[in-house]
Specification:
- The chain contains six helices and seven strands, in the order ααβββαβαβαββα.
- Strand 6 and strand 7 form a beta hairpin.
- The longest helix is centred in the first third of the chain and has 28 residues.
Length: 217
């Protein structure tokens, strides 16, 4: 009998045990290694987030948009707008579009910061909103980031109350088409009507279109 066999068997067991320990250790390191999409928070990333919030706050301060507050009168109940929620572009607070409707009617204008016709139309809507016989005008920013929207409105001197529809809930409820801008008139009775597709170039055009829709009730 070979007297060395037990010694080799013992040595083999030690190698297997050592390999097992190494495999377990490697698996532990892999499990704890931060993934690209789960990178741990660091002082640097926290600082960047803080700077982003500060930048957005500065943009909001400069834009000085009207508050997304309820109209002083009692707006109509509109089932079509149930769940049409977003954030107020002016201060970042959550808001329900239905809570902002005016008693005498509301013109909802949907736009995006990258849309050239929207840039042409927004100043006309601002001028219309300043007229004493106007209905309430609300902007809804879609498919574009808040910072870009604030910069655009500030450059155009447009101070309307605006809902930022980052989650697409307002667009879904209104069935917003691909082509922008698009406007909707909510009548005092709570009916939602899509306005003609022409881009408004003046406050007079806006007033005539709104008056025509209200007269057709």
């Amino acid at each position: 009998m070979n007297s060395k066999a037990p010694r080799w068997r013992g040595f083999g067991r030690e190698i297997r045990w050592t390999l097992t320990v190494l495999v377990v250790a490697v698996l532990g390191v892999v499990a704890l290694w931060p993934r690209e999409d789960e990178a741990p928070s660091t002082p640097e990333t926290s600082a960047n987030s803080g700077r982003a919030e500060a930048d957005l706050g500065e943009l909001r301060s400069r834009a000085a948009l009207a508050e997304c507050s309820p109209d002083p009168g009692s707006g109509p109940a509109v089932a079509e707008l149930d769940g049409a929620s977003g954030t107020c572009l002016g201060d970042g607070s959550p808001v329900e579009l239905a809570d902002m409707l005016g008693e005498q009617g509301t013109l909802i204008n949907v736009w995006a910061s990258w849309c050239p016709p929207c840039r042409r139309e927004l100043p006309a809507l601002q001028r219309y909103s300043e007229q004493p016989d106007s209905v309430r005008v609300i902007g809804v920013q879609v498919r574009s980031d808040a910072a870009g929207g604030l910069e655009l409105l500030d450059s155009l001197d447009v101070r309307l109350p605006v809902v930022h529809d980052s989650a697409g809930r307002v667009a879904e409820r209104l069935r917003v088409p691909t082509t922008l801008p698009v406007s909707y008139l909510v009548t005092p009775e709570g009916e939602v009507r899509r306005m003609p597709p022409e881009v408004f170039d003046s406050a007079t055009q806006v007033r005539q279109a709104v008056h025509s829709e209200l007269e057709a009730r």
